[in-house]
Amino acid sequence: MDRNLKPDLFVGGLLWLHPSHRPAMRHIATLVALLLFGLLFGLLMSMAIPPLDAARGIAQYLPLHSLLETLAIVVAVMVSAIAWNVHAKKLSPSILLLGVAFLGVALLDFSHMLSYAGMPSYVTSSGAEKAINFWLLARALAAAALLLVVVLPWRSSASPVNLFLVISPVLLLVAISHWLILWHPELLPHTFIPGQGLTAFKIYSEYAIIAINVVAAVVLWWRMRQPQPFNAVMLFGAVCVMAMGEYFFTLYADVTDIYNLLGHVYKVIAYLLVYRAIVFETVEQPYLQLSATQAQMEATLNAVPDLMFEVDEMGVIRGFHSAVPESLAVPPEVFVNKTIRESLPQESAEVIMGAIRDAGKTGLSHGKQYQLQLPHGNNKWYELSVALKTGHMEGEQSFVMLARDITKLKVNESMLLLQAQRAEVLLDLPRIAERMDEKSFMQRGQEIAENLTGSEISFIHFVKNGGEEIELVAWSRRTLEQYCTAAYDSHYPVSKAGIWADALRVGKPVVFNDYASYPHKNGLPQGHSSLQRLISVPVIENGKVVMLTGVGNKNTDYTDFDIETVQLISHEIWHIVQRTRAQIKLTRLSKVVERSQTEIYLLDPQTWLFIDANQGALDKIGYSLQELRQMTPLDLKPELTKESYAALLAQLLSAEQENVRFVAQHRRKDGTLYPVEIHLEKTHDEPPMLMQIALDITERNVAEVQLRKQLDELHRWQKAMIGREDRIIGVKREVNELLAQLGQPPRYADQLPAEAGEGDT
Q1: pTM for the full predicted model
Q2: What CA–CA distance (Å, rounded) separates 715 from 402?
Q3: Do domains 304-405 and 596-696 have the same CATH topology?
């Protein structure tokens, strides 16, 4: 429901109409209602005023009648003139039909006006009946034409309508009407009897005309349920007013009374509504459509981001359009009415002129690209589309040229290419490392970072001593050959490094796109070329900066992509170097382990089967690796049972102990046994395995036996020596006692231990 629709008497009917008709119908409905009120008022007058009074004529009615008829004729002629002028525009044939019909109506109305009572003779004597005959024919023609127009489909014609086929029947009807009315009126029924009024034929003829108009109104009302390609509302108002006007011509008793006047007024109003409908259809609506189309085209042009130019075959720029004037490389006054070669650089101008020549030959050129330097310093890329304009004078060529800004596309293409190159490089770095020593590889990695970022210098430093010292590891060859001849120390403290070492200090990349403007640079050593721009990137491992990488002197400012590129390459270099070093160390260790006489085994914790063993183990037990992989520790340790070995593993696998140690016997392939000390632990692999280290303790056992023998012998000797010493002490005591009896001093007083129980002296 239309919420904007105000409640009134016509709300129900208006809601029945399509919304496209409602605004206009509100106005027409108001007009029809007012005229209907006038009609009802006329009926009341006819009932209230006595017939004699109603028959009284209006003084000086003839000039008034002529004025009203003249207005109606002018309007009818304008309707026909409009239809005549637009018949070749492939509009609906209904317009021409209505226009031609109203030409006939205008001719009949003209004869009606000249034949009116009181007018001079018009071929024959003028009179009421003569004028009424012309009137009825004009009204019937108008009503029939309007009914035919509203019934027939209203659609545009594929080709201009043949005017002769339409106008001939109308003009023939008008001619026959004049022949009958002027020269053979006796063949026509009477319509008016002076002193008595209208005849039944006249009244019923008016009713028939009213009926035709009412049918046309009903058809129009029905069609207005849907959108219509013509001004159905105005035509609806016209047929309604015509029907009401015709009813007045059933009431008058004199051709000059008030009802006759009102009928003519209603007719003029109806004609004006028809004219309004035709004007709207043929003039206003196309103009509105043109304005809407123009506005739409302007909006479309403004929405197009492309630069549009009109140029001639000599390359002279005649006009332009730009939704964003700031996108122009130069102001309009520089290039309008100037040639392309005068306005643009030579290289770009030649590309554009080539596209114009191609368009002149084939009608269209597309895909040529050129580059411009805009005033603010950025490079812009454009793609051209040039089309030959038609409709110009013979021998003259004009072109429409669209220049589409493809800078972002170019940047994206370049970015994708760089990303592809970077990805390829990152994949290739491990293979490069395999062919080079460490220093050469790191130097090659820096050269790759230089190329991808458009830099001219690069360096790598290792961070030492907990971040307090820096070691220069590598400069690129170009840096050494072209930019730096300075003498330098490979090791120096961070405190002496310039702002390029801020990446170490802050723990994140730093960028200097105007290196000269930064304070606290510490300067550059003698022989080092100047720096314009610089990126310094830290490599962080376990929360500590372990390496610094830098590139510098790009022609333009460094971007986030450049920082990301240096970071990725630097981290990959560091990881490859560390991985290579670890691999070398592991290889050396593997060789030591492989050659060791210590037995080392790897076991499956689920099946207990041997997985691998070092050569020392294989030499000891005498089995091959293939044979060993079919065996378990139970096959080598005869004293172990399945239950006892499972109990040992349970402690280990349950994480109760990190390792298990026990002594056992190993049985060689030849059946001989030797003692081993077993160390069993779980590895950190995924999935985890069991590692068994077996130490041959044969020699240790022999040494232990010999040591026990030596200890036993020592104990026996010690006991013997202790008994002999006791006997000597006893003899010395006896000597001292005998000397004492003889009154002599003791000989061994200082050589004897104190008696048991004696205190210290």
Answers
A1: 0.49
A2: 115
A3: yes
